[in-house]
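In full, the data:

***
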Amino acid sequence: MATSRLLQHPILPVAPRADVPFTWDGRPCTAKAGEPIASAVMAHGVRVFGHHPKDGSPQGLWCANGQCAQCLVLADGRPVKACTTPVVAGMDVRPLDGLPPLAAEGARPTLGDVERREVPVLIVGGGPAGLAAAAELGAHGVPVLLIDDKDRLGGKLVLQTHRFFGSVEAVHAGTRGTHIGERLAREALAFDTTEVWPESTALAAFADGWVGVWRGGARYVLVRPQVLLVAAGSRERALPFRGNTRPGVLGAGAFQTLLNRDLVRVAERLFVVGGGNVGLITAYHALQAGVEVVGLAEAATECGGYRVHRDKLARLGVPIFTAHTVLAAHGRADADPSTAIDRGGPDAADDGRVAAVTIARVDEGFRPVPGTERTFACDAVLVAVGLDPVDELTLQARAAGIQVVAAGDAERIAEASAAMMAGRIRGREIAHALGAPVDPVPADWARTADLLRSKPGPGVAEAPPPPAVGVHPVFHCTQEIPCNPCTSVCPQELIHIDPDDLRQVPTLLEGACLGCERCVRVCPGLAITLVDHREDPERPLVTVPFEFVADAVHAGDAVTLLDTVGGVLGEAEVVRVRGAPRARRADAAALGDAAAPAGDRPPRAAGGVDGTLLVQVRAPAAVAARVAGVRPRGLAAFEGGSWSDVASAQAVADDEVVCRCERVTAGELRALIRAGHRDVNDLKARTRAEMGACGAKTCAPLIARLFREEGVAAADVTPGVRRPPFVEVPLGVFAGAEEP
């Protein structure tokens, strides 16, 4: 089988890893040490993990986060989640077709006593909020037990290769997310009072004050905290459309996990649904890994994410369709999609994998407009239409009378920088509440937190360039967002942003720019260039940041010059390409990972010291200040759609799957709603919706949407009861039986 492993990456080091032999469906394969089954088999081109017992529809990866069960496979005869189960040498992995077989009766397991622990603070979640809180509590001598369901700390920061926005002083802005995660973990673990349980999941909170924890995926432990801090992050929203459960339709987090954690590329041609920061950033990550992004659709009239993220995609040739929605993901059987749109069931003439996607323009009511359909050939559809807080443990603990607080996305969806600040604030509040000798939360912390949580401001006109003399930076920022790394690195202190309002766009003060290029390479939005008129005023030298592998562009190459939004300004020859130079130790705090001390610096990537290349071209003086990016020939070339004339659909068509675990369609649920049923628990009993392995994590918001579409007020709907455990767990674990 062919491999889809990355051999080079502009940001991430691609180091050799030991091979682990296993078999997939009887065929010999190799995984990398510590790699989960899903990544290993998808590296070999596998996309279909099995078939659903209800209708035989093909099943593939959706979340890669253990939140659903769409990736179930048989490993040595036992059903497991492929996304969270590591491969071990000699493992026999097979697709799960239908229901798993019952295990043969064997020897009774040895049962033991359930361990009990009492702790001052239990933190659930080792991402930015949980780590920041643990560090703050540790700094004030408060003992902490921190649990996380992954094998490493950092949460989603592990997947974020881009530089972060926000405040340099408060949240390490200008540093790549992967390196921020490593730094936060070091800070949290620097105290002897902090204990960490990796690969451990909080299952339930009980009225007697105990929290059930599945520790290490092996044994059950009851923990009673004085204070419970839930920093479990968020989960991605599902979206109903025809073919939404096909293998190849996956969440942005799953795509990033495979690409940026496990270095596995699972698509050659990707279509992205959703123009928030998650969709925009993941599309950029895909391009960096050599995946062609054939398009991005956003239902609103403007992308909701930062404009600098959108502009990066536009400069790389990605078509962005605002006021558009997805209608269907097709398989190879849909040769004529106008008459053969299927749900990937057993009668399909192919394996059900994605082969194309159809989108359409929407009107003011977000209804598809007939005649505006466009179809694009692709082998993956990435769904990035928003996040929901992981709040079930918070709600249950609150109902049980446990002193509980939430931080980060588990409390309120925002950027990871905001989660760090929120965790720090919660840590200080908890330390104060437990009687530690600590001052209350400073007022400027709360003010910074509000700034970091703020939505992007309105668009602004690009600042006029400085006079065409000497050397100076040019700012291509056209939106107010919280960000200040450029002000922190200028040795002449020429770049100004009001310290009381990080959302301002930067301005250039009067003074002599040294041309040091630090602002160019530290900008998270790649929105600063440097124009140098000193050698040739008619054709000044323009320095542009570039975050692709070094082999993508060389001195002497012809490149296309682009303005901020991707407009073509002409052609130019590359004068020089180099990586960002090492900086002095004194600059480390200001430059983040690009200037970290030698002992604290992350490994070099292929593209340079910190992964950012500086591409220098000579451009005509008339356009030099407008050059915001360059596109080498052959990079991110776009090919148009191959199909058309697909029938339009309603917001949620009756044959679209709402509950992917139990394959319950919108039509089944809509018929009951129209018959007067208003209790979601009644719908569950009649259809099994919300009764699947994911515990209603994906379908509950979609069922609420169906009620809205039918004109039923939320106050008239009885919600479904969310019962623990919050993830599947072998029953024997509760009796003290350790998993083999």
Observations:
- The chain has four domains: 19-100+238-383, 115-234+389-453, 471-632, 650-735.
- The first strand starts at residue 19 and ends at 24.
- Residues 70 and 649 are 26 Å apart (CA to CA).
